[in-house]
């Protein structure tokens, strides 16, 4: 105790309950504490960063898995324009202006998109195809319906042209 020079003072150690950790304080230097690990391996030092990385990756994967992906619906059907002709610049009444595609849910019909009448369509036309914009669809079974819409805004029976699709996650 006869040494009063703070620069020459010997460090002292405080005992803690943990046997592998020593708290060291050096008088006369900065008054910060320093944890010293006696038996610390590189494996033990990487445990916390690895754990944080694993938690971050798990959160990212969970978020990615729960996000619903937008899907594009493409429908192809046939229509007989001998029954109702297609609208044209000269024919604007009692004609088919477009086709509408619906998802027939329990809540009712939900319009997904419309398909224009093919140019110059007459008689029985096979393979009329239309694609909608990317939309969110819940997983499960959906009933799609296609209707013919007249120039007056009237539509054909939505039960006349339906199909069922299965949407998977």
- CATH fold-level label of the largest domain: Immunoglobulin-like
How many domains would you count in the coordinates? 2
Number of strands: 11
| Number of continuous helical runs | 2
CATH class categorisation of the largest domain: Mainly Beta
Please state the CA-atom Rg, rounded to the nearest Å: 37 Å
What share of residues are in beta strands? Answer: 35-45%
What does this molecule look like?
This protein folds into 2 domains: 6-66, no CATH class; 70-167, Sandwich (Immunoglobulin-like), CATH 2.60.40. It has a 4-stranded antiparallel sheet, with no helix packed on it. A 3-stranded antiparallel sheet has the order 1-2-3, with no helix packed on it. The longest helix has 20 residues, at 47-66. It has helices spanning 42-45, 47-66, and strands spanning 12-14, 21-25, 34-37, 70-71, 74-80, 96-105, 108-116, 124-131, 135-136, 140-150, 162-167. A hairpin with a 2-residue loop joins strand 6 (96-105) and strand 7 (108-116). It is mainly beta and 169 residues long. The chain contains 2 helices and 11 strands.
Short summary:
This protein is mostly beta strands. It has helices at 42-45, 47-66; strands at 12-14, 21-25, 34-37, 70-71, 74-80, 96-105, 108-116, 124-131, 135-136, 140-150, 162-167.
Break the fold down into its secondary structure elements and pairings.
Blueprint lengths: L11 E3 L6 E5 L8 E4 L4 H4 L1 H20 L3 E2 L2 E7 L15 E10 L2 E9 L7 E8 L3 E2 L3 E11 L11 E6 L2
Antiparallel strand pairs: 1-2, 2-3, 4-9, 5-8, 6-7, 6-10, 10-11
């Amino acid at each position: 105790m006869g040494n009063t020079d703070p620069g020459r003072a010997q460090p002292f150690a405080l005992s803690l309950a943990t046997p592998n950790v020593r708290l060291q304080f050096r008088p006369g230097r900065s008054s910060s504490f320093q944890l010293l690990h006696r038996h610390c391996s590189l494996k033990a030092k990487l445990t916390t960063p690895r754990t944080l990385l694993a938690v971050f990756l798990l959160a990212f994967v969970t978020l990615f898995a729960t996000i619903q992906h937008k899907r594009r619906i493409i429908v192809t059907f046939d229509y007989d324009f001998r029954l109702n002709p297609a609208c044209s610049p000269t024919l604007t009444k009692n004609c088919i202006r477009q086709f509408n595609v619906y998802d027939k849910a329990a809540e009712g019909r939900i319009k997904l998109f419309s398909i224009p009448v093919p140019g110059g369509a007459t008689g029985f036309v096979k393979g009329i195809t239309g694609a909608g914009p990317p939309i969110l669809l819940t997983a499960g079974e959906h009933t799609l319906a296609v209707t013919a819409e007249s120039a007056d805004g009237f539509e054909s029976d939505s039960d006349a042209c339906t199909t069922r699709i299965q949407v998977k996650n």
